[in-house]
Amino acid sequence: DTAVSQTPKYLVTQMGNDKSIKCEQNLGHDTMYWYKQDSKKFLKIMFSYNNKELIINETVPNRFSPKSPDKAHLNLHINSLELGDSAVYFCASSQAVIGIPGAEAFFGQGTRLTVV
Amino acid sequence: GIQVEQSPPDLILQEGANSTLRCNFSDSVNNLQWFHQNPWGQLINLFYIPSGTKQNGRLSATTVATERYSLLYISSSQTTDSGVYFCAVGGKLIFGQGTELSVKP
């Protein structure tokens, strides 16, 4: 009964393809996030949804589109994949918007995306 | 935006040694977390500690919010403590660059 689960764990695909990464949380949290970890292990927020509404949208190419069908799911769709998209993508969730007291974030196991 | 700096960037310890990792941040925050990224890439929550001191077994953490820093103490280190330790702060959970810890047997 993993709290935040992502699928797939590994994804190898060719340049130009479109792919999706799925994320589900069973913690009953209201807020979900996508983070990107680059080859130097630097982690940076990409998007955040609160109750299915987009609340954080960092400077990310519009080839990346998050979709939240309900507050327990936040999927990441990537169009026209490029070599530079290779990274580890982490999903996370928290009880409330981060920054509000008590809003501890919990992370999924990550999806290692390799674009060849 | 908030800047987060961690030190040292790398640390090699002999098993059984103690260590202190530091996280400085540039603005006041009401959220701070410490994570351990193990060699398999999992991000494990260590502490949610916007202020004060907490302890969990051999690990403890202290955040002095007014002085904008947090410390993570690891005592009697074990090889399983190896990995990267991150602090992250603020509304967007801004991460530091991490401290890569290697504990040798």
SSE layout:
The complex is a heterodimer of chains A (116) and B (105).
Chain A: E1 4-7, E2 10-13, E3 19-25, E4 31-37, E5 43-50, E6 53-57, E7 64-70, E8 73-78, E9 87-94, E10 105-107, E11 111-115
Parallel strand pairs in A: 2-11
Antiparallel strand pairs in A: 1-3, 3-8, 4-5, 4-9, 5-6, 7-8, 9-10, 9-11
Chain B: E1 4-7, E2 10-14, E3 19-25, E4 32-37, E5 43-48, E6 52-56, E7 59-64, E8 69-74, E9 83-89, E10 94-95, E11 99-104
Parallel strand pairs in B: 2-11
Antiparallel strand pairs in B: 1-3, 3-8, 4-5, 4-9, 6-7, 7-8, 9-10, 9-11
Description:
The complex is a heterodimer of chains A (116) and B (105). Chain A is mainly beta and 116 residues long. Chain A has strands spanning 4-7, 10-13, 19-25, 31-37, 43-50, 53-57, 64-70, 73-78, 87-94, 105-107, 111-115. In chain A, the strands form 2 sheets. In chain A, strands 2, 4, 5, 6, 9, 10 and 11 form a 7-stranded mixed sheet that branches. A 4-stranded antiparallel sheet of chain A has the order 1-3-8-7, with no helix packed on it. With 105 residues, chain B is mainly β. Chain B is built from no helices and 11 strands. In chain B, strand 6 and strand 7 (59-64) form a beta hairpin. The model of chain B has no long low-confidence stretch (mean pLDDT 96). Chains A and B meet through strand 5, strand 9 and strand 10 of A and strand 4, strand 5, strand 9 and strand 10 of B.
